[in-house]
């Protein structure tokens, strides 16, 4: 929204990443400098790592300064003056006594609740949000975005290590997306063989190319293909509308 782009296709990489294909005509003509500036603008989290090796030093978030439209947060968790910084030494002592990350998180949340409830706190405590922001906000690959000659992985290609297909994502059902359940090259071959055997029995006179073109609709890849088709249809509709507007039509 901030950059005025409309046509964005999100594609699972097949391993642990996500590619965003921005297909607006204007964006495709951006220079490398403009592309780099856009990525810098969207790189909200500036990660800082302390030198002591203690786990707490990894929980240090730097965000863009006051006025950045993406966030109201302006201080790091352990920055000077942050309410939670008062508990730093106590947490250093208590963290090693907890057996796993879940217990450490509950310990940290307890400190946050006490900090929120303290009368006369200098500032609201957003530490839990800041920590989640640090670990959950996507890390953007600036080189892929700014390089006009950079190789890109096409939708529906197969990841060479996992065998998973790079499938388009439906943002309306994203909370139900399981990266480990996407089609693989092995599972698709099995599904196509099964579909082919059934098709031969049902349509013995159909030509091989026509049958193969239809068989993918009977595999687990079909809903992902539909997401891609809807994206392309949306782009085509927008382009027709733009041409009509420029020609003075109604």
TrEMBL record:
InterPro entries: DNA_primase_S. Transmembrane segments: none annotated. GO terms for biological process: DNA replication, synthesis of primer. Residues 193-216 are annotated as: Disordered. Its EC number is 2.7.7.102. It holds the Pfam family DNA_primase_S. This is DNA primase AEP. It comes from Tyrannus savana (Fork-tailed flycatcher). The lineage of its organism: Eukaryota, Metazoa, Chordata, Craniata, Vertebrata. The gene is Prim1.
């Amino acid at each position: 929204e901030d950059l005025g782009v409309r046509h964005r296709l999100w594609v699972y990489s097949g391993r642990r990443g996500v590619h965003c294909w921005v297909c607006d005509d204007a964006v495709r003509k951006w220079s490398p400098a403009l592309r780099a500036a856009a990525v810098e603008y969207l790189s909200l989290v500036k990660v800082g790592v302390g030198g002591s090796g203690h786990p707490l030093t990894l929980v240090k978030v730097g965000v863009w300064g006051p006025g950045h439209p993406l966030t109201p947060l302006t201080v790091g968790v352990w920055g000077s003056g942050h309410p939670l910084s008062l508990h730093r030494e106590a947490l250093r002592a208590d963290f090693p006594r907890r057996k796993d990350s879940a217990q450490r998180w509950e310990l940290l949340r307890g400190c946050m609740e006490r900090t929120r409830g303290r009368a006369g706190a200098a500032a609201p405590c957003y530490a839990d949000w800041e920590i989640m922001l640090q670990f959950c906000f996507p890390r953007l690959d600036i080189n892929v975005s700014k390089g006009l000659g950079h190789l890109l992985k096409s939708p529906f290609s197969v990841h060479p290590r996992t065998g998973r297909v790079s499938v388009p994502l439906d943002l309306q059902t994203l909370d139900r997306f399981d990266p480990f359940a996407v089609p693989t090259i092995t599972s698709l071959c099995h599904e196509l063989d099964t579909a082919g055997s059934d098709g031969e029995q049902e349509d013995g006179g159909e030509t091989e190319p026509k049958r193969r073109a239809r068989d993918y609709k009977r595999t687990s890849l079909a809903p992902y293909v539909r997401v891609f088709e809807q994206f392309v249809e949306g782009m085509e509709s927008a382009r027709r509308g733009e041409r009509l507007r420029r020609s003075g039509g109604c």
